[in-house]
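Co-fold these.
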Amino acid sequence: MTQFAIPAIDRTLEPALRTKLDGLAKPPGSLGRMEALALQLGLIQQRLDPQLRRAILLVFAGDHGLTQEGVSAYPASVTVAMVQTFLAGKASANAFASATDTEIRVVDAGVAAQLPPHPGQLDQKIAQGTRNAAVEPAMTLAQCEEAITRGATIAKNAAAEGFDVIALGEMGIGNTASAALLMHRLSPAPLAACVGAGTGHDAAGLARKRATLERAAARTTATAPLDVLAEFGGFEIAMMAGAVLGAAQAKTAVLVDGFIATAAALAAIRLAPEVQPYCIFAHCSAEAGHRLMLDSIGATPLLDLDLRLGEGTGGLLCVPLLRAAARILTDIASLDDVLNGRL
Amino acid sequence: MTQFAIPAIDRTLEPALRTKLDGLAKPPGSLGRMEALALQLGLIQQRLDPQLRRAILLVFAGDHGLTQEGVSAYPASVTVAMVQTFLAGKASANAFASATDTEIRVVDAGVAAQLPPHPGQLDQKIAQGTRNAAVEPAMTLAQCEEAITRGATIAKNAAAEGFDVIALGEMGIGNTASAALLMHRLSPAPLAACVGAGTGHDAAGLARKRATLERAAARTTATAPLDVLAEFGGFEIAMMAGAVLGAAQAKTAVLVDGFIATAAALAAIRLAPEVQPYCIFAHCSAEAGHRLMLDSIGATPLLDLDLRLGEGTGGLLCVPLLRAAARILTDIASLDDVLNGRL
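Predicted complex below.
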């Protein structure tokens, strides 16, 4: 994957950005993390006046062979039903996208069904679901590389289309199981600390999920990020990892949603640590393990609203924060202008 | 102030709202605090499909006689300069209002200067600044009642104009000092736990502020909310307290910003506890004491982004969250419809 060598972000503008922020008509630092976000956007866009005009949510959908082991409280068929719900504009992500003036597109990374074409859907299907990672690799290395490459292309195309921020969302029954395995191997962290209830397990379901993931983890000693992604899946996670790489190549901010999107960002960061300054971590999921995974990459999410849905819902709620952060650098008068009556 | 008897919020719709939320195409409760917010909006508006179309920020401005004691790191003249900056559209609040599609108006509650008329400014000046609360009551009881009444009228007018949410902001050099005294007497809490650095004190400034507030607190044993407001000020805080009362009377959601706006809400809640279900607490300020003040009324703010500016900046960042919360109840398909192909 040498084509994903990302140049380190150019920090030349940082002193000028800090000087500008500190010279605005407010006590220095009084906008807290919003100022840090403004600085980050300035560095990403290499501008003293970063802009956040158009935002897009890409919802990557894929199915997981692991669901054969009962790792999810929901049947795999829900993935297809939810893709149809996104396309009908009636999922939670659509509601939040409307509220935050964000465009939304669904990417079929590997749903286990043939989906009818739809203008809001990108057909990038690698296969109809991954294999069962409890007994064999979820995908081949070639499939994994293909998923990453496609994800990067999708993100670069979105940036070229004029989107200033790319939010990553996902839909895939069973994908907290894959994400837990990725976290276990890439953070790394003990498996027990990585496994949570997902969207709604009871105690028996959670025990079954834990046992299955122990079998999957015991099957391979892989630790290299590409190998780990191929071993544990899923297609939507590998494609999101590619989207992080592509967004960084296109010098575009990427909003990382919850547990699963963070696992994808973690994989991307392990492949190319230089992507991290392009990542904005949106929301601390209620899913057990998310805080620990964020800690492993030194990330502090913007929101903590007890969400545990995915779909990009947490990222969407941060789009207005990014818009506000950009406007700190474009809309606020300097203290000097205020004190000298130059408004 | 018997005219501010607020009827208890009608909770008749609560079971229907919960049933609707639990029947949406997502795991029950998976949108966490956003679902609680949707429920709150439904109860405030008495609708199963609450709406958040138009939002307004009211920035209440006033000066404080306490500044004569050096309780602020900034001179009182900054209040006027910042009012002019709001009206020129170039303050932090304007930047965030633009980013969140929120209208903004400045209310002159008691700035210590004659301000020229401006279409974006409501002249509701009670007096040119409060008196020095370290040596005498900040205002008369009659002034306090007048400020509250005017604040209530402003909020009711905004609701009648079609604003679905009223965000409260403030500008007033020295007003963390007033707010600390209100918190001390109304939470109640030891004074030391209520006093923080404001927008930017050094250690000597903070010590001076503490000593001044100890003198002010020692001057009176008032604990009744109206008396406490009159003793410690300020006009903008009393008017914000009135706005909370008026918003509740108009069955309109009110977004409470940081430390000072919360002190105003605390006063309103002590005057009429029934207003609290109409209050949405936006942001936990970096100002020492804010968390404790919020705890004293059992409030958990939505955001924690290390803001310590005021102006309503924290409230503005929550406007999109309210829009998203309302859309949970209007835009998401029911699980039943998804499972039965009725999209």
